[in-house]
């Protein structure tokens, strides 16, 4: 999935990417005690693994009129509806014009799963708890799934037949189906820095478009215990909402392969359907973007990136992001440039870069996000920042004025 940024929380890249490769998260002892205090989540211990399910219908959060619970309440303020879309299963369609920066969804998780191949004991415990909450169980099984991730039958060479009807299926079949639904629908989240997988039934109806073609962005809010979606462009009523399952910009062939293997569909977003020449050009820009990002992160990480060069790279990244129509990471690099300017004691450049960062954080993750608030604090008084003028004084370039209008 996409690179971890210093400023922004880790992006999940849509549903469940890369979780297979990460070690089993066992939440025990103190961690569990903390989790159990969260009002929206209740935890159960199975062996060394915790199972978290959303709060009871009677919880205070369930009455919050602005937040979806697992049944998709908030009907009176509906911004999008979930409808069947040819070739895509279901998808989310705007039922009114949506302004850029608008909050489109807040949703609590139906469940939080370990960030690993799902333990059988976890599935058994989940079903035990859902005996008392059939509507949660039904919400879960109504979700779509792509692969069942089963080996072919050695005798026939065909995928095994699996009964997907929960009441009549065997424990094995139930396990496989649960695993498949999780793989297709979860988003990577964190609780107390532990990587986990969250399942959000409304959120998970949003289909994929490749980076740059997305009109919404999502953000897991650990503090609030909720998933959020923000509009990153003006969206006309009747338009499908789309975000990227694959994090950052990358070459078309790799995107298509990954999506086919992981989710079983062939992407036909506006960037996957460009002609050969335009695809080659876009792939080249994406490769350039990635190389600059890697270089910036490596050298700023080990303290060997000189200030002027750092600003030049951020400006190049910005230019490329405009060519790619890629908005993700604009805020992050603008903040990085602001921090460089602070370290070199250039208040004017720092303020310009931080204003740009604040604008984009506000659009992409909300004005009340940790990111936007952190930048706002710096903006209030850049000369009071810890490392103000900690390096040689330099006069640095700011962002182009026109970038504020993008
Ligand atoms: C998280 S779900 C999205 C909602 C889903 N379409 C549904 O019916 O609930 C992911 C699955 O949706 C389908 N999907 C997502 N984006 C798609 C796209 N751009 N084109 C075709 N199918 C897509 C794939 O089957 C994928 O495995």
UniProtKB/TrEMBL annotation:
One Pfam family recorded for the sequence: SET
InterPro entries: SET_dom, SET_dom_sf, SET_domain_protein
Coiled-coil ranges per UniProt: none
Domain of life: Eukaryota
Record CDD domains: SET_SMYD
Residue span, SET domain: 78-246
SMART domains (UniProt xref): SET (SM00317)
Name of the molecule in the record: Set domain-containing protein 5
Native source organism of the sequence: Mycena indigotica
Taxonomic lineage of the native organism: Eukaryota, Fungi, Dikarya, Basidiomycota, Agaricomycotina
């Amino acid at each position: 999935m996409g690179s971890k940024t210093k400023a922004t929380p880790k992006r999940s890249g849509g549903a469940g990417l890369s979780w297979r490769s990460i070690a089993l998260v066992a939440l025990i002892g103190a961690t569990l005690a903390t989790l159990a205090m969260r009002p929206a989540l209740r935890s159960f211990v199975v062996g060394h693994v915790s199972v978290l399910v959303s709060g009871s219908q009677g919880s205070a959060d369930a009455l919050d009129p602005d937040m979806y619970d697992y049944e998709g309440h908030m009907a009176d303020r509906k911004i999008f509806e979930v409808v069947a879309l040819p070739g895509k299963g279901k998808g989310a369609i705007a039922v009114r014009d949506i302004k850029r920066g608008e909050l489109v969804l807040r949703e609590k998780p139906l469940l939080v799963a370990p960030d690993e191949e799902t333990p059988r004991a976890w599935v058994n415990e989940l079903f035990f708890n859902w005996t008392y909450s059939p509507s949660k169980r039904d919400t879960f099984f109504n979700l779509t799934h792509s692969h069942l991730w089963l080996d072919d039958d050695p005798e026939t060479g065909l995928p095994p037949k699996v009964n997907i009807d929960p009441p009549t299926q065997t424990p094995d079949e139930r396990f496989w189906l649960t695993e498949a639904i999780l793989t297709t629908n979860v988003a990577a989240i964190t609780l107390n820095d532990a990587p986990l997988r969250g399942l959000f039934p409304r959120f998970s109806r949003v289909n994929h478009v490749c980076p740059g073609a997305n009109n919404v962005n999502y953000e897991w809010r650990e503090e609030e215990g909720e998933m959020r979606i923000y509009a990153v462009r003006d969206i006309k009523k009747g338009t499908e909402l789309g975000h990227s399952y694959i994090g950052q910009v990358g070459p078309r062939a790799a995107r298509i392969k990954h999506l086919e293997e992981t989710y079983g569909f062939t992407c036909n977003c506006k960037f996957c359907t460009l002609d050969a020449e335009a695809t080659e050009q876009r792939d080249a820009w994406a490769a350039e973007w990635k190389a600059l990002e890697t270089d910036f992160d490596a050298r700023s990480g080990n303290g060997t990136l000189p200030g002027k060069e750092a600003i030049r790279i951020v400006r190049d990244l910005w230019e490329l992001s405009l060519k790619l129509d890629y908005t993700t990471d604009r805020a992050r690099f603008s903040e990085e440039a602001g921090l460089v300017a602070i370290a070199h004691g250039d208040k004017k450049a720092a303020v310009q870069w931080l204003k740009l960062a604040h604008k984009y954080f506000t659009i992409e993750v909300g004005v009340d996000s940790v990111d936007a608030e952190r930048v706002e604090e710096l903006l209030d008084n850049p000369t009071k920042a810890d490392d103000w003028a900690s390096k040689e004084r330099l006069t640095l370039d700011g962002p182009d004025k026109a970038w504020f209008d993008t």
